[in-house]
Hints:
By secondary structure, the protein is of the alpha+beta class. The chain has helices spanning 10-20, 26-48, 70-84, 149-152, 221-232, 250-260, 281-294, 325-337; strands at 2-3, 57-61, 67-69, 89-94, 101-102, 112-120, 131-139, 161-167, 171-176, 181-187, 192-198, 208-210, 243-244, 263-266, 298-300, 320-323.
Amino acid sequence: MTTNTKRISLTQFLVEEQRLHNTVSAELRLLIEVVARACKTISHAVGKGALGEVMGSAGSENVQGEVQKKLDVISNEILLEANEWGGHLAAMASEEMETIHLIPNRYPKGEYLMLFDPLDGSSNIDVNVSIGTIFSVLKAPEGMASPTEQDFLQPGTHQVAAGYAVYGPQTVLVLTTGNGVNCFTLDREMGSWVLTQQNIQIPADTREYAINASNARHWYEPVQRYIGELLEGKAGPRGVDFNTRWIASMVADVHRILNRGGIFMYPADAREPDKPGKLRLMYEANPMAFIVEQAGGAATNGPQRIMEIQPTALHQRVAVFLGSKNEVERVTGYHQEA
Ligand code: P6P
């Protein structure tokens, strides 16, 4: 990873990506710029906090049955409105909407599909802890037929771009188009995204893990055994002490791991045996898996690479183990022994 000295804007970076890689079309470049502008608008709304009357509950529930925060709804609207008229998308899907959102007939349709979690980590909004936006871009089916939900159900390996924004002490945008991972920091005075980290690489080993330990009594045996060994530290089979972090905003935990290594885990557990985990495959796990793999890390559901999972439903959930490659591969071994 190199920390950039010459000031390169997101626009210049994407123009050069397009020039260098035939996988980055002008349409995709323009789409990413639209999403980046929408994230700037969301960052501004989030930053107002109580002064912007955007805190607290919206008094509604989303398709997941979760209480929607005002900012969940606002962020979703910002992304929908920003992307409807641009002509880059054929349809969108969001954690906050039950079904797909088609581009209104008055606007041209584009060649891409986009899925997003407009505001990840909502439980942290009212207590001023970092939250973010996650997005994933797929190719739309050829021809002019109107996309269906089935057209979105592509494995993560089909993603052409993915990214997340973190609305924290700084607002950052982390992006991959399949040619490495780069980070842009929002220059609030100029209102522009500036390249601040190039070709991010996750350390292959780590002594830091992220999991919600309050669920320990519900974990299945492989996870119990794996975490138990981490907790034994120097005296145990790992021979070293470990540290734990859990922010309850996937974007913030992943951003830490991208920068200093670690393993993020949200395993399936016995609370809901019919659900393979809490996190959603299409707009949380897949985009983060794309980014993590492009940064030299690994992302599995325990036994299987997340990006090879064939989706069967728009809002399906998945177990997630992602981050430092050697640590994630070690976890897979526990599942194979199960
Ligand atoms: P828990 C936020 O709601 C989220 O989807 C992820 O961003 C985060 O990692 C996880 O859920 C937190 O879950 O059960 O610890 O609140």
